[in-house]
Structure formats: structure tokens, C-alpha cells
Specification:
Layout: H1 5-16, E1 22-25, E2 28-31, H2 32-47, H3 53-60, H4 78-102, H5 107-118, H6 131-153, H7 158-171, H8 174-181, H9 187-198
Antiparallel strand pairs: 1-2
Helix pairs in contact: 1-3, 1-4, 2-6, 3-5, 4-5, 6-7, 6-8, 7-9
């Protein structure tokens, strides 16, 4: 039986709609995680038109129920941040795998979606890990640059921001980098990206 991708995406979006955090986009107020998921789908379509349904599912569920586990539940340290991220990835992967299994994905297909969400097969550098994992990572980096970067950079000094951009760039494959260079970024974002790439 083929996976019911449409139903899985509906259930994923239903969960996103429960996010109490909202944003206003073009005059419409929507839950933030639904907005984020829509951005992931938009950039996936730009990056890899006609992507595999398992990649489509994983991209749509990248931050599944993330709002339920506040960053403040872990120490405000680098180690605390990584522990929080590790827990989130595992939790999100497990929850979405169950949705997939309930929507006629095989165990192998559901496991693949979970692995993509958990970034299990992602290695630093294009061609060193799972190609689908690289696609999802590229898309997440593009959404960060497009949707989160301007607000994020206001809270950090320039040196730290440049270091983060350099790490983000290394995470992306050639297609992701190509799209990033052609994004309609703010003047400040373009300036910082230029400094990051200049080394």
C-alpha cells in the first residue's frame, strides 16, 4: 500500500496549528510552526522540485511540536543548547514516525522520515552523507536565512553572527549555497553574509 502522504501532511499541519506562538504574515495571523512548515515546503520546492514524498514529509515536520519543549528547560549553556536540540530531534522523529505508520507508510519509509528529521545520516559536507538528509538540511538553512536571520542577528555581536553564518554555509550543499546567494536578503544580512564568505 502506498503511503498516504496527503493525510500525513494534514495531521502534521493540524499539530502545527496548535502552536500558541503566532506571527502576522500579509495581515494574517497564523501559528508560527505552521508558517515555518510552509516556508520549509516553499524552499524545498525551489531546491528540489518534485522531491521524494518522504523528503516532503520530513521537511514539513522539521520542527514538529517544538514549542512544547522550551529552550529554558535546559541550561543556558552551549552544552545545554545541544542537549535541548538532541532531545528535540529524537522526540520529533518518534512522533512523526508514528503519524507516518498510521498513514500507511511502511516501517522502512516511516523510519526514513524519522531519520531525516533526526538528521541521523547527515555528514558535514555535500556527498559525505545521505543525499536526502542534505536536501532537508539545505532547506532548513535557507529558511533560517530567509525568515529568522534578521531577528536573530539583532541579539548577537557581529563576530558571533559571522561565525554562525560560516557554519551554516559549510552545512549546505552546492544547490543550497546557490539559492542562498540569490535570496532577497536585507542589506544588513547581505553585508554579513559577504563578510562570512570572505573569511
Amino acid at each position: 500500500m502506498a503511503p498516504d502522504v496527503t493525510r500525513a501532511l494534514e495531521l502534521i499541519d493540524a499539530a502545527h496549528r496548535e502552536d500558541p506562538n503566532v506571527v502576522t504574515i500579509d495581515g494574517e495571523t497564523i501559528p508560527y510552526e505552521l508558517h515555518y512548515a510552509q516556508k520549509m515546503t516553499k524552499f524545498l520546492d525551489l531546491h528540489t522540485p518534485g522531491a521524494d514524498p518522504l523528503v516532503v514529509t520530513a521537511a514539513r515536520a522539521q520542527h514538529f511540536r517544538r514549542w512544547e519543549i522550551s529552550r529554558d528547560t535546559y541550561p543556558r549553556t552551549k552544552a545545554g543548547y545541544f542537549a535541548w536540540r538532541t532531545f528535540l530531534k529524537k522526540r520529533q522523529a518518534e512522533q512523526v514516525k508514528k503519524i507516518c505508520l498510521d498513514c500507511s507508510y511502511s516501517e522502512e519509509e516511516a523510519g526514513k522520515v524519522a531519520a531525516l528529521i533526526a538528521k541521523e545520516d547527515l555528514k558535514k559536507g555535500e556527498g559525505k552523507g545521505d543525499a536526502d538528509a542534505q536536501v532537508v538540511e539545505d532547506v532548513a538553512c535557507l529558511v533560517f536565512l530567509d525568515d529568522q536571520f534578521d531577528e536573530f542577528e539583532k541579539g548577537h555581536d557581529e563576530e558571533k553572527i559571522i561565525a554562525i553564518l560560516q557554519k551554516t554555509w559549510v552545512k549546505m550543499g552546492a544547490r543550497g549555497q546557490e539559492l542562498a546567494l540569490n535570496m532577497d536578503l536585507s542589506g544588513r544580512a547581505k553585508e554579513l553574509v559577504g563578510k562570512a564568505l570572505a573569511g
